[in-house]
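step=encode ok
step=design start
structure_in=
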């Protein structure tokens, strides 16, 4: 066994032992196949002009990100439960804990969801593509 093989073996073993977990890959919006490349061109979702721009393919493993026309329309189904979860948690906090008047509650909910919209849409797309593209070790 020469040194290179041993080195490569250790690196491969290390990656095998510690692949990026699925939830971390989804939340960090990484490529679902290699979990290293970024799904979006800009890391900051609040650069609103090109917040949803995605490269055509992963710059690390070349996984196609534009799988078919209209692919990300289905991501709305992934965003919807996120919105419901946020609304539920905010409702419990604002009405249950802080006992906010109803009109201020609606202002707070609308403002919060509007502010979180870029993140929610991106997260929905990340969940959606992770549902259809599986992780491949060493890609
Ligand atoms: Zn990739």
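sequence_out=
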């Amino acid at each position: 066994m020469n040194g290179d093989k041993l080195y490569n073996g250790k690196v491969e073993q290390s990656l095998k032992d510690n692949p990026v977990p699925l939830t971390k890959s989804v939340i960090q919006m990484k490529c679902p196949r290699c979990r290293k490349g970024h799904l979006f061109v800009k890391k900051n979702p609040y650069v609103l002009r090109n917040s949803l721009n995605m490269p055509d393919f992963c710059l690390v493993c070349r996984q196609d990100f534009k799988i078919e026309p209209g692919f990300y329309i289905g991501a709305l189904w992934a965003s919807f439960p996120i919105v419901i979860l946020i609304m539920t948690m905010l409702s419990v906090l604002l009405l249950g804990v802080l006992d906010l008047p109803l009109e201020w509650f609606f202002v707070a909910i609308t403002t919060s969801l509007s502010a979180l919209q870029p993140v929610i849409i991106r997260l929905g797309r990340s969940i959606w593509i992770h549902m259809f593209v599986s992780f491949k070790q060493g890609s």
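step=design ok
step=annotate ok -> The radius of gyration is 20 Å.
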